[in-house]
Amino acid sequence: MARKPIPFDHVIKALLDDSTPFSPTYLHRFSDLEEDELDALQQIWHQIQPTRRLALLSDLEENSDVDTLVFFDNVARIALNDEHGAIRAQAIRLLWASDDENLIPLYLNFLSDPDAEVRAEAAGALGNFVYLGELEELPENTLHQIEDRLIDLVRGKDETLVRRRALEALGFSSRKEIPALVREAYQTNDPDWVASALLAMGRSYDKAYEPEVKRMLKHPKANVQLEAIRAAGELELESARRTLLDLLEEEAQDSEIRYAVIWALSQIGGEQVRETLEKIADETEDDEELEIVEQALDNLQLNEEIPMMMFDFDIEDEEELKKFGRQVDLSKPEEDDEED
């Protein structure tokens, strides 16, 4: 027997009760809110303590990462108008996967927000729309407007994080100016800029970046190495396979690096990859690693089937072939950590 939904006025009351922790059991009620429920939330939004508003949005983001069926966009849109920059930034993160074109002018306006965190999140979120524009799912003039603003940001004097996020978003763009911007960032030898350049390289689907990516696969800075591994996978660099397989043999390896290697190998495929992943699946005692490997094996299977599927299509243009085979990572960027 299905449980009755929690009345939304109970959720509102709990949000406003600062004396009691807000229960996680209420989070699912914010998905697909009815119009009257959304109005009720909007009316009391600014009465909720700022720390609780921020925590709510963060919890909703975490919830949406594990449950693809929930829809919290309407809640996030309320928070876009919050007076606190941290809350506006979190709202953009909650909207990260949205392809609603109505967000474009909002994000473009946020590029001038007084809060640098908001500007950085908006720049990063615009990458989704650059990608859609490359697929011709946006008007060409809209795409160029986004690209122009992001290029100006990269070349400008805004804070480093904002400029880096703009460069990462431009990784999807085929504009002729972009490779020079990416290589300029790569050549700074600043680990954060190099990591952003590598992320952009991975998004480009341009194997001309192969030497730069391979050079960083064993970089001592974890954030640089991580983005190099991801880029090698996105670009399906067969020449990186041996190095990636060797990395799996290293002991005391950071789990995030290890999981990135496993996924990159599933994108590249080829000799020894399936055997290696199946061996890890058989031997690991780590449930999280087992789940990652099983997902990687599924991805490997899919990638092995795509070339056969292509025989069923009449693809005349090489660029269309690239778009068909392209695998794009639109996930939210990792938080920047200080590396020793």
Care to describe what's here?
The protein has 340 residues and is an all-alpha fold. The chain has 3 domains: 1-95, no CATH class; 104-206, Leucine-rich Repeat Variant; 242-248 and 255-306, no CATH class. The protein has helices at residues 8-16, 35-44, 50-66, 73-79, 85-94, 103-110, 116-134, 140-155, 160-170, 178-186, 191-204, 210-215, 222-234, 241-247, 255-268, 273-283, 287-310, 318-325. The longest helix has 24 residues, at 287-310. The chain is globular and about 60 Å long. The model is unreliable at 318-330 (pLDDT under 50).
Could you write a compact summary of the structure shown?
This protein has helices spanning 8-16, 35-44, 50-66, 73-79, 85-94, 103-110, 116-134, 140-155, 160-170, 178-186, 191-204, 210-215, 222-234, 241-247, 255-268, 273-283, 287-310, 318-325. The protein is mostly helical and 340 residues long. Helix 7 (116-134) runs parallel beside helix 9 (160-170) and helix 15 (255-268) packs parallel to helix 17 (287-310).
Q: Given the helix and strand composition, which structural class is it?
A: mainly alpha
CATH class membership of the largest domain: Mainly Alpha
Write the H/E string, N to C: HHHHHHHHHHHHHHHHHH
**What low-confidence regions span 5 or more consecutive residues with pLDDT below 50?**
318-330
Total strands: 0
Give the biggest beta sheet.
none
Instruction: Output the CATH topology of the largest domain.
Output: Leucine-rich Repeat Variant
Number of domains: 3
Distance between the termini: 55 Å
Please estimate the helix content: 55-70%
